[in-house]
Write a structure and sequence with these properties.
Blueprint: H1 37-49
Length: 58
């Protein structure tokens, strides 16, 4: 068992990295996270603007 919240493979706490700009919890099983339409949208948003916010202040 993984202590705390997890996706079945990785705990939420262990996914955090010192100095990261943003963090978002996705409610999906580990093997299918990358195929979720909302995740794809969030990744593109973050790569473009450095934020998950729909209206980043640029």
């Amino acid at each position: 068992m993984i202590p705390g919240r997890s996706d079945g493979k990785v705990s939420v706490e262990s996914a955090k990295v010192e100095g990261m700009k943003a963090f978002k919890v996705i409610h999906a099983a580990h093997p299918v996270i990358m195929n979720q339409p909302g995740v794809i949208k969030d990744v593109v948003q973050f790569l473009k603007f450095g934020s998950f916010d729909a209206n980043p202040s640029i």
